[in-house]
Amino acid sequence: MAITPLSDAEIDARMTKLDGWTRTDMIISKTFTLDSYLAGPALATAIGVICEGMNHHPDNLSIGYKQVEVSFTTHDVGNVLTASDFDAAEAIDALNYPRR
Description:
This protein is α+β, with helices and mostly antiparallel strands. The chain has a four-stranded antiparallel sheet with strand order 1-2-4-3, covered by helices on one side. It has a single domain (about 10-95), classed as 2-Layer Sandwich (Gyrase A, domain 2), CATH 3.30.1360. Helices cover about 35% and strands about 20% of the residues. It has helices spanning about 10-15, 40-55, 85-95; strands at about 20-25, 25-35, 60-65, 65-70. The chain contains three helices and four strands.
């Protein structure tokens, strides 16, 4: 199945379904604020497992003190946003993680 870029209207519609995610050009990202440092590596590991299972990996996944930042774009079709980016974001948001 071919991966196709989403139109701006499709991107806008998908963004309304995401809590706390932002869009900058053709990248969506979110910073998760956590209740402890160790929650960060745990969340990053969970994100990695989800993305590996989906075969769609983050553009960036970084761990800071009590926070994790993740961003997506689809490199395979020229660094644009596709359904895969939003599907991964929705799966990550469904995680039960310790929030601050």
